[in-house]
Structure formats: C-alpha cells, structure tokens
Amino acid sequence: MNIDWSIIINFLPQLFHGAKITLYITVTGLIGGITLGAVIGLMRAYGGYILNTLAFIYVEIIRGTPIVVQVMFLYFALPVLVDIRIDPMTTAILAIVINAGAYVAEIVRGAVLSISKGLTEAGRAIGLPRWKVVVYIVGPLAFRRLIPPLGNQCIVSLKDTSLFIVIGVGELTRTGQEIMAANFRAVEIWTAVAVFYLIMTGTLSLLLRIIEKRMRIL
Amino acid sequence: MSAIIEFKNVSKHFGPLKVLEEVDLDINRGEVVVLIGPSGSGKSTLLRCINGLEMITSGDLLVDGLSVKGGNKILREIRQEAGMVFQQFNLFPQMNALENVAFGQRHVRGMGRKAADISAQELLEKVGLGDKSRHYPHELSGGQQQRVAIARALAIKPKVMLFDEPTSALDPELKQEVLSVMRKLAEEQMTMVVVTHEMSFAKQVGTRLIFMEHGKIAVDANPADVIDNPPNDRMKDFLRHV
After folding, report:
1. Facing B79 at nearest CB: one of A126, A136, A218
2. A170 in a structural domain
3. Residue ranges of the ABC transmembrane type-1 domain (chain A) (predicted)?
C-alpha cells in the first residue's frame, strides 16, 4: 500500500470548487426550504381543515419517499409528465427546497404547538387579534425552540447534496468521484472529501451553539 | 343599578357534555361575584364564556351591551372591557414585568411606548411591585407573577375583571398578597367575577355568592347569609370540604 497524502494538494482547487457548489446548493435550498417549511408548518398548526389536509399530504409524501427518488422524479419524470426540463443545478436546489420544506414544516408545527395554550389565551384575553398573538407572543417563543432541530435539518440537508451525484451536479462528492476515476487514490481523496464535509458541518454546529447560547430557551 | 354582564338562557356543550345549561344571570356594575362549586360544575366555563375564550352553544351573552356572538371584532372589544386573570398566571416569559403590562396598552389600545411604560410602572406600583419592573417572570415568585398578571389585565382599562382561580396555584402565604390586591380593587368599585375556593375572601369581599352544580346556578345569595348557613345539603357538603 502506498499512501501519499501530498497528492491532495494538487486537487485542492478542484475540491474547493466542489465544496463551493455544495454550499451554494445547501444555502439557496435551505433559504427556500425554511420559507416553505414555515408556511406549511403554520398551515398545519393554524390552518382550517382544507389547508391542514393539503399540508399534511405534502409532508407525508416527502417524508415517506427517499430523496434520491424525489431527485430522479424531478429530473427524469417531470419532463415526461408536463414537458418541463430543468437543468441539474436547478433540480438540485429545488429538491432541497421541497425535501427540507417538509421536515422544517414538522419542526415549525411542533415548536408552535409546544407553546403553552395559556399564553395564547392570555394574549387573546387582552384583546389582541389572532395574528398579533402569533407574531408577538407564540412566534418569538417558538423560534427559540426551533433552533436546535432546525440546525439539525441544515446539517442533514448539507449532506443530502451529495446525492445529486446521480444527476451529475459537480458538487463535492461528484468532484471526489471524478478525481478518483482518474488516479484511483481512494484513501487520500475520500478522506479529503470527508474532511471537507466535516469542516462545513462543524462550522454549522459551532454557529448553532453560539446562537443557542445567546438565546435563552424559554 | 344596570347590568354589565347578562346571561340570557346560555348553554354550553362540549360535544355530548352539557357544561352550562340554560343559565340566566345578570351581574351589575360594582358587584363582586364569587363563583364556587365542585370541579366540573361549570364555574370556569361560565367565566370563560364572558370574554369568549369559550363560545356559547345557545342563548345570548351580553357584556356592556355587546354580544359575544357578534364576531371577532366585537369579541375583541368585549375582551378590552373584561380583563382576565388565570390560575397559571400566563405571563409572557420573553418580556419583563413592565413589558408584560405595557404590551396590551401598546398593541391593543395603541398607546405610544413612553406613555405605556409610564402607566405600566404606575400599575406595577399599585400592585406593590414598583421595584420589580425589570424582572422577568421566571425571576418572580408565584404571588408576584400573579400580581403582574393583574396589572397586565388592568392595563387595558377593563370595566370588569374576571378571575379564574387566581390563588389556586399559590402557597398559603403567597395567596394573601394576591387576595389583598383583589380586595383593593373591590374597594375601588371594580366589577369582579371570581372563581375561587377562598371562602374568607368570599365572605369579606364578595357582594354575591353563586354556587354552581351540574352546569346550573344552584344558589345565588349574599355570601354572609349562606356561607355559615348553607340553604341546601349539597352546598353544605361542599363547604365542609373547602
């Protein structure tokens, strides 16, 4: 076995480029996913029968199917069904939005419902309209409880981007695969790829811990 | 004396469960009505129907002439007429005492921040907590939290105050500080409806005692007359146990 860690240096620019694409998909996808999740989650918590049911169906479909199948469906099945062809990058971002959206929706619903009903009643009892109760009383409290599970979801979504190798998006895992195919340096390259992921997820964890510390959970 | 709260043949059902059955009741301005009764008799529900936290199933219920069935806008007006104090205090935990009290004035009465803060400070002083205005709920004792909650309810300038077992979650010593604030309110001619088990309070402060049983008003009388001399066995039995 000859292992030569120094060869990694030659591939650093490529790996950095792959990591940048991974980050881009993650960040854009999560901005969309968290927004979508917030809307769906509030529909689950406050919506009437119809909104609640629609949101429930969406969440169940997404949670009940593997993300790889969702990506394949978006990329290969959608063009057949409705004649919409989207490029791999857009597909990747869309997949994160739709997938993270479902999980975030459950996180938001859980956080909102965990806030004592008494506080909502106290707000309504002083004559606040319902939306003000949500915005000023339940919202800020639920937000604090949202942070830990939301952080978890961010890390999961970041790692999920590695699945986009199946539709040929040049993110970090695919970059590793390409380098590997040329030189067969499996140990060095996959170690380097793993370290890149660890640095990104580690930074996210650290960021979360700082936010959690600065915000008292009430 | 004119009635400020009028129950007209009010029923409230939770599914098959009849919690209130055809209740007729007028409460006049300045009265301190004490509601007692075994658990499940409907006393808390009766109170919560007044400010629409529970919607009545049939009949009508007027607060200062406004019907609780008048829709959301009217309901919000009613809630500004009727302040409520809860058994579990329910202070907003992310706000300090002053912010809790000022919140309603700013967001319901549309008062500016400065004016709301000044008036909130005055209310905190009134309940004996002028020096605790910057404390958060978790830094206050139960009795102090409940007094802040009373100040918060008073801040929206209600004409009626509704108390839902305000001292049931408190130690005997802490009960007294809350009861003395309530006594002070009664002396100021505030109309009050109080669900409680504090019979000494009922006797000293109450102007009217209502004993509820199975969703109906079983006894409606002067507290001093009936507490030592219950008119029926069921009430006698109940009073022996509180």
Report:
1. A126
2. yes
3. 19-208
